[in-house]
Amino acid sequence: MDGIFHELSRKTDPAKLLGYLNFSDGRPDPKFQRGIADAIAFFMASGEREPWVALHRWLAQALGELESSGSPAFRDATQVRAVVEAALGKLPTAYRKHHADLLAHQPDSELFVAFALARSCEAVLKQGPPWEETDRLVKGAVQFLDDYVGYRPIALLETRPNTEFYAHEKVRPIPVYLKGAGVAPGRYADVVRTAIELLAKTDPILLDEASFTPDHLDELSFDPRAHDHFHPVNKRPNVLFGEWDPHTIDGRGFYRRFVLRQMTLDTLLTWVKPQGEPGVATPGYSDPTERLFEAAAVLAGTILMGAGVSGSGPSFHDSTVTLSKLVPRIARYRDGFYQRLLKSLPGAHGERLRAEAEKRQQPFAGVRQYLNQAIATQRASHLQDRRLAQLYAAMGYPAAARTRSAKISAPAVRFGTEVRIRQTEAGFAADRNKPEVAVTLLSEVEDLLRRGIDCGALIDPWNILGYQGLFPIFPGREDTVRDPRAEELIHQVGRQFDLYAKATAAAAVAGDEATRETLASNMRNFAAWWDKFATSTVSDMPRVVGGERTDAAGHVASALTAWAKRTPASNDVAFWRDHREGFTSPAAFAQVIEPLIVRQEYRAATALLMTWLSEGETVPLEDPSASFEALCERWVRSVASAEVVPAPARATLVRRFFELLEANATPDWLDPSEWLLGSESHEDEDEEEDSDYGSAYEGMTYKDSTDDGEESSVAGSGEPKGAGHDFPLEAEAESLPTARTLPSSDSSIASRQSKFQTRRAATKA
Q1: Contact 153/105 with Cβ under 8 angstroms?
Q2: What do you get for the CA distance between the two ends of the chain, in Å?
Q3: How far apart are CA 634 and CA 646, in angstroms?
Q4: Is the dihedral of CA 453, 494, 624, 543 positive or negative?
Q5: Can you tell me whether residue 482 is helix, strand or coil?
Q6: What band does 286 get if pLDDT is binned at 50, 70 and 90?
Q7: pLDDT in tens, 564-622
Q8: Which single residue of 279, 287, 659, 700 has CA 20 to 30 Å from 757?
Q9: What is the pLDDT of residues 306-333, one digit of tens each?
C-alpha cells in the first residue's frame, strides 16, 4: 500500500489537497474536486475495492509526513486533521446509518464516489470550529449534504405543525459532473462526458426552447434512491429521465443542478455493453464506440425532455401552462434534436442510423425503443413481484414474501411487505390465544409505518387530506392523478386497529389483564397519532377513525371479560342484549361476533348479526374494519362444518338464520331469483333509457379535440406501446381481490374502463 501511495503522490500532490482542507471555509474549489477525482481514479485503476477508504489513509499518511518534515503550512494542522477524519473516516458510516432505510439497496461503491467525497469535505468545512467536536462536525455535515427531494408537493394545512420535509426524506444526489472539475471517474464517465459534449454543440435556439442552458449546469448528478414504479409521481411527464433540482436556484432565479435517474443511466449502459456471454454483442452493433455515441445521444435527449417539464426556474411555468399544452412542445423539440443530430452524423455510422430511422420511422430508434422497453419490462416485473410479496405476506409465508420483495429496490415494497408479515403473524398470535406475542409485533408495525413515512417510502399522511387522495403532477389544477398510496396506508392502519382489537379481545377472554391494558394503552396512543391526519373526512377514501376503533375495542374487551366469567348455563342471547349499548360501529360488532363464531356460540352470534343488520342505516354493514356479508358467510360455513352439532340442529340453525335475515333486512332485500335474473332486465331498462335520447344524436360523429393522432402523451410514431404508459384499470387493481360481482355486459365493462382511465403522462425517450 505504501508503494501505491508513493506513486500516487508523484502524480497528485497531496499537499495541495491538504492545504485546501486546512485553510478553506468550505467554498467549492474545482481544483480540489479534480484532485480528489484523480486520486480516486488512480485507486480504481490499481484495483482498490474501496477507493474512499484508501483516499482517507493516503491523506492521513501524507499529512503525518508533512507535519514531520516541518512544512510551514502545516505547523497547525488541527483543522485539516479533524476534517480528514470526520469527512473521510466517520461521515461515510454516519451517512449510511442515517439512510439505512432509504438507501439500503445501494452499495458503498455507488455512494462514496469521487465528487461525493469532495462534497463531504466541503460539508464538514462548512461546520466550522471547534474542530475537536467530531460528532458535531459529522452530524452537521450529514444534514448539510441532504438537500434534495425532487418533485414533492406538500399540502399546506392549518392543522399541520410544519411544512418541512421529513428528517430522513432528503438525500444527496451523487455528482457525476461538476462545472470546472469535469466528469467524475466511474462507470458512467464515458456516456456522461459524451452527452455533455453533444449538449454543448446543440443549437442554442433548441436549447432555449428546452429550458436548458449548458452554462447554468453547475452539477449533473443522479438520484441514489430506488425507483418506485408504484409512486404516482411517475405519471409526471419525463420524470423517469430526470429534472432540474427545484431547490437549487441561483440569485437570478435559474436552476443550477440537474438530477438524472440511475435507472436510465444503468439501462443505457446495458446498451453500450450488452449483457450475456463475453464477446457477444447486440446484432448489428458490433462497435462499442458507436453504441456509446447512441446511448449518449439518448441521454442528452432525455435531459432536454426533463428540463422542459421543469423549466429553467421556479417561475418559468405560470398558472396558464398545463400538460396538454406543454407535452406537444416537448415532443417537437425532442424530435428536432434527434433529427438534427442524425443529419450531422457522418460516415458509415450515420448512414446506418439514417437507414434505421427510415425503416422504423424514428431517429435513433434502436436505442430509444430499447430504453422504453427496458423500463416497461422493469415496471411490469416490479408490480408483479410487489403484489406477490403482499399476497405471500397475507397468507403467512414470510420467507416467500421477503424473497419477492428483495427483487425490488424500492423501500416502499420492503416496508409494505414487512408491515403485512407482522400484521399476519399478530393475527395468528391472537387466534392462538397468545396476545402477549401480538404486543411486540404490533409495536414493530407502528415503528415501520413511522420510519416509512419519515424516509418518504410511504405517503405523507397530511397529503391525504390536503390533496383529497389525489397527487398533483403539475401546477395546473386539472393535472392531478389518483394516489394509490393513500388508500394503501389507510388499509394498513385499519388492519392495525383490527388486530389491536382482536388481540385485546383474546387477552380479555384469557383473563390476562396486564396484556389487555398494554394493548389498550398502545392502541390509544396509535389512535391519537392517526386521528390528527383527519383522513376520515376525505370522500371516496376508507373511513378509519382511531378513536372510534379504540372505544369499540374497549367495550368489546369488557363485554368479553364478563362473558368469560358468566355462568355457563346462562342465556347467552340475554347476556349480549344487556351489553348491546356499546356496539355503535361495524368494528365493535365484528370484534365480538368473530370470537363467538370461533367458539361456536352460534345463537349469540346470530342475535348480534341481526341487531347489526336492523341498524344498517346508522351502522354501515361494510367498511375497512368489518363486513357483515363476510361474517354471515363465515357463520354459515362454520355451522355447516360443525361436527359437534347434530345435523338436524344445524339445519334448524341455518333455516332460522335466513328467516331472521329476511325479516330484519331493509326493503332492498331481494329474492335470490332476482339476483340471477335481474341482470338481463336491468340491461334492457338501460337500453330503453338510452334509446329515448339516442335519436337526437343519429348521424352525428364525436371528435376528441385533444386527439392528435398519437396514442402516447408525447408524439413518438413507431414506438412500442406500453413503455411509460398506464393500464387503464391499474388503479383498480388493489380492490380486485375483494370484488364479488362483475359487470353484466360488454357495455358495462367498457363503461367501467372509461370511468377509471387516467392521463397517460409518462413520456418516452
Answers
A1: no
A2: 46
A3: 19
A4: negative
A5: strand
A6: low
A7: 777 665 556 677 777 777 677 787 788 788 878 887 888 888 888 888 888 888 888 88
A8: 700
A9: 999 999 999 888 878 888 888 999 999 9
Q: What would the DSSP string read from start to end of 247-314?
A: T-B-TTS-B-EEEEEHHHHHHHHHHHS-SSSTT---TT---HHHHHHHHHHHHHHHHHHHHHHH-SST
Q: Helix 347-360 vs helix 365-395: angle between axes, to the nearest 10 degrees? A: 60
Amino acid letter at 492?
Q
Whether 362 contacts 368, CB under 8 Å: yes
Q: Mean pLDDT in the chain?
A: 84
Burial of 567 (0-12, 13-18, 19+ CB in 10 A): exposed
pLDDT for res 104 = 95
Sheet holding 242-244, edge to edge: 182-183, 174-178, 219-223, 257-261, 242-244
What is the mean predicted confidence (pLDDT) over 112-129? 97
Is a pLDDT exceeding 50 seen at residue 708?
Answer: no
What does the alpha-carbon distance between residue 95 and residue 139 come to, in Å, rounded to a whole number? Answer: 9
Long-range contacts of 548-552 (CB under 8 A, 24+ apart): 548/585, 548/587, 549/497, 549/498, 549/500, 549/501, 549/523, 549/585, 549/587, 549/625, 550/497, 550/500, 550/520, 550/523, 550/524, 552/501, 552/582, 552/583, 552/584, 552/585, 552/587, 552/588, 552/591
Q: Which residue has the higher pLDDT, 669 or 727?
A: 669
Compute the average pLDDT of residues 415-439: 95
Q: CA 675: distance to chain centroid? A: 41
**Short-list 120, 118, 122, 112, CA closest to 50:** 112
